[in-house]
Amino acid sequence: MSTPKKLLYGLLAFITLSSKGILIYNEETIVALTFFVFVRIAFHFVETPLAEALDSRSEFIQKELATLLSSVQKSYKEMISDLNNIATISSVVDYSLSTASTNLAPLKLADKLKAQQEFKVVLTSMLDEFAINRAKMQLSAQKNKAERLRTQVTKGIKLVNNKAPTKKK
Q1: Where does the signal peptide begin and end (predicted)?
Q2: Residue 75 and residue 83: Cα distance in Å, rounded?
Q3: What are phi and psi of 22, to 5 degrees?
Q4: Closest listed residue to residue 37, CA positions, set 53, 15, 59
Q5: What letter would DSSP give residue 23?
Q6: Phi and psi angles of residue 59, each rounded to the nearest 5 degrees, phi first
């Protein structure tokens, strides 16, 4: 005999025994027992479809999680390869910078020497110009001094000539 039939016969026996007064109970007990019996019968009939629905939903969720996991793993692998490429590019850039700096070192030295030579030329020309200007100023000062001296000498000569007795003829 199957379980639902046993439950149905048990329910009929309970109802019969209680209606004849063989079983004594109150209303709350009968309501509670009836509720549990109803839940058991309903669960029995719904159990299989409910389990199948939950199983199919579980399988769907597992597939979605597997897909998500594989896409995340793929994404992480791509990120790792990108990081490796970046590291490779970084090492190439570092190598090229070090190579360029070693290749540019003689050029930097040549530029430094050229700048020193240009500075020396500019400084020499400035010193020459200063010396020329100083010589011009000294020459101008000597000319002014000579002019003043000549002026004073001429004034002195005139003064002497004016004070000297003149010979009459």
Answers
A1: none
A2: 12
A3: -75, -40
A4: 15
A5: S
A6: -60, -40
What are the boundaries of each domain within the chain? 3-161
* pLDDT tens for the chain, residues 1 to 169: 677 788 788 888 878 887 777 766 677 877 888 898 888 888 888 888 888 888 998 999 999 999 999 988 898 888 888 877 777 777 777 777 777 667 666 767 777 788 788 888 888 888 888 888 888 888 898 888 888 888 888 888 887 877 766 665 5
Instruction: Extract the tokens encoding 144.
Output: 């002014």
**Are 16 and 46 contacting, i.e. CB atoms less than 8 angstroms apart?**
no
Tokens representing 108 are 């930097």
35 vs 29: CA distance, rounded Å: 10
Task: Find how far residue 88's CA is from the centre of its chain.
Answer: 19
Task: State if pTM tops 0.85.
Answer: no
